[in-house]
Amino acid sequence: MGNPTEFALAVMEQMLNGDAPSLNVLRTQLAHATISHELTGVGFYVNFNVPANCPTISNGSCHIGDVEAEIDGLVHGAGFVLFIVDGKIRTLEAYSYDEPWPESIERYVLKYHDSSTRMLPF
């Protein structure tokens, strides 16, 4: 899984998993967005360009940050923050904890910080 966009889509699936109506809207946005990515050395950014005609969530600007990963090659794992601006997904930030991001990701486990409760802003 050398393509960070492919791994990011798996992270996004985890981030947007759930029954909240706002998550359904964000999944619709993801399905219609164009995607670009940038490696940072300790993670990556994925930018989403959501078409103007997609529905938006009423929360305006917020973030989701309750997903983490165990990744082969990262001793301390990774964290993620999805930034939502003006009701639309904008940027997914992936980061390691003070270690270089692996060149490729073959095996990983995605999970929530707290397995009993999602930490959602809506």
What is the topological layout?
Blueprint: H1 4-15, H2 21-32, E1 34-39, E2 43-49, E3 62-64, E4 67-71, E5 78-85, E6 88-96, E7 108-112
Antiparallel strand pairs: 1-2, 2-6, 3-5, 4-5, 4-7, 5-6
The number of distinct structural domains comes to 1
Broad structural category: alpha+beta
Give the uncertain stretches in residue-range form.
none
Helical residues, percent: 10-25%
Instruction: List how many beta strands DSSP finds.
Output: 7
Strand content: 35-45%
N-to-C CA distance:
32 Å
Tell the overall outline.
globular
Mean pLDDT: 93
- Helix and strand pattern: HHEEEEEEE
**Main beta sheet:** 7 strands, antiparallel
In DSSP terms (H or I, runs of 4 or more residues), the helix count works out at 2
| Rg computed from alpha carbons, rounded to a whole number of angstroms | 14 Å
Describe the structure.
A hairpin with a 2-residue loop joins strand 5 (78-85) and strand 6 (88-96). Helices cover 20% and strands 35% of the residues. It is built from two helices and seven strands, in the order ααβββββββ. The protein has one domain (4-112). Strands 1, 2, 3, 4, 5, 6 and 7 form a seven-stranded antiparallel beta sheet that branches. It is α+β, with helices and mostly antiparallel strands and 122 residues long. The protein has helices at 4-15, 21-32; strands spanning 34-39, 43-49, 62-64, 67-71, 78-85, 88-96, 108-112.
